[in-house]
Amino acid sequence: MEKTFQIDVFGKVQGVWFRKYTKQKADELSIVGMVQNMADGSVRIHATAETSALNSLVDWCKTGSPKAEVSDVKVAELEPLEFHSFEIIR
Fold first, then answer.
1. Residue 16 near residue 67, CB atoms below 8 Å
2. Pairwise CA distance, residues 20 & 77, whole Å
3. I need a surface site. Which of 22, 68, 75, 84 has the fewest CB within 10 A?
4. 46: left (phi over 0), alpha (psi -120 to 50) or beta
5. What pLDDT does residue 1 have?
6. pLDDT > 70: what percent of the chain?
7. How far apart, in whole angstroms, are the C-alpha atoms of residue 43 and residue 1?
8. Domains in the chain, start-ordered, CATH in brackets?
9. Of 76, 88, 72, 90, which is closest to residue 22 (Cα–Cα)?
10. How many whole angstroms separate alpha carbon 18 and alpha carbon 11?
């Protein structure tokens, strides 16, 4: 059964290609959703997939892109959201 997670990633996660690498990981895991930079310097991800794929993405977010310095990852389950692909929101 598919679920939707909101994943908020904190630390040095903007200007380090975090969104690009998140899309690559999501595509690899067959996750649909979106990723965007937030005004407070964090990155927000809405991801819809099977639980095991979502958990893999959450684990990946704890390290993130090669130049990222992740300080915290917060995860909340949302009502299922419908996406057709994984998009980078600019």
1. yes
2. 23
3. 84
4. beta
5. 86
6. 100
7. 26
8. 2-82 (3.30.70.100)
9. 88
10. 11
Residue 35: its pLDDT value, please? 98
Backbone angles phi, psi at 60, to 5 degrees: -60, -40
* Residues classed as catalytic: 19, 37
> Is 70 within 8 Å of 63 (Cβ atoms)?
yes
Eight-class DSSP state of 80? -
Compute how many other C-beta atoms are within 10 angstroms of the C-beta atom of residue 62.
11
Q: What is the mean pLDDT of residues 44-60?
A: 98
The rounded distance, in Å, linking the Cα atoms of 90 and 87 is 9
User: Where residue 84 falls among pLDDT bands split at 50, 70, 90?
Assistant: very high
Average pLDDT, the chain: 97
Distance between CA atoms of 75 and 17, rounded to whole angstroms? 21
Position 54, amino acid: L
